[in-house]
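Problem 12. The chain below contains 331 residues. Write out its predicted structure in token notation.
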Amino acid sequence: MLSNSERRSRLEAEADSAAQDTMWRLMSRWLTASRFLRLRLRNGGHRCLERLIAAFSADSAQRIDEQQEGTSMSGLQNKVVIVTGGARGIGAAMAARMARGEAKVVVTDLLDEQGAKTASEIRGLFLRHDVTSEDDWKSVVEATVEHFGRVDGLVNNAGIAAGAPLESETLERFERVLKVNLTGVFLGLKAVIEAMRAAGGGSIVNIASISGLIGLAGVSGYGASKWGVRGLTKIAAAELGRHRIRVNAVNPGVIYTPMTMERNAQLGEGNFPLAPLGRIGVPEEIGEAVSFLFSDAASYMTGAEITVDGGWTSGQAMMTQHLDATDRTAP
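Solution.
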């Protein structure tokens, strides 16, 4: 049962929201009408009034753009975010994107020199971190709280890509991939719960992969780990929502990183025909997706996934190639 003061506060909030919606609807109608009126006035020669309408329209449009830009950045300012595997590649791009949104970023990695350089460039903090170590996770969270006072966000990005066909895959390598890619995510989720709960909530983004969406030959350990990350994301979302902690996942496709460079990945249009967009992605495109999930624009999203793969898993590339062939043979 709500008290009178709580009921009054709720009614006032609803009234404010309704008033804002009405204001923007009226503004939209005014912008449409003003454009039509300006065309009519141009024929009549009323230049003074035309300039007044143009100035008001431009100012209103700028205010709308500023509000939309503020919404996309909102949720990052002064937030403390840990990015694992943040020394290079996708991790470094995500750390830089968080920093541009005025977040306070903690970069963790086993690559000391590159990690320290990345953190220095974004005015963040670097911590050496083995994600398979529960003690390391405890130290990272404690150091973050000691340095910044809280933990608001975590990007579980650290991972390794290694594999072979099932018949020749070794147990040692299979277990190593699972330990880094899946157990590391599990330990990260556990490690930040208490700190995020103390902060009043938080947001976690787990970096999965399209290898966890479809079966790709030759990567049994990697694929199994990413299928696991997706499942763990949904379980964590179900458990942690009551603490106002959101947990989501991003599934990158082939992205231009040091790991894919070793496999001769090439940037540029037409260099990846498996994807409808015809190219591989760049780390910054994953950074934008992760940034969105941390923003207030995604405040009602948890247990969700965003796939950033140029359309590869949609299957449209094969269909397009078939249609092109059909067009060529058509009479």
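Discussion. The first helix runs from residue 4 to 44. Students who got a different answer should revisit the alignment rule from Section 12.3.
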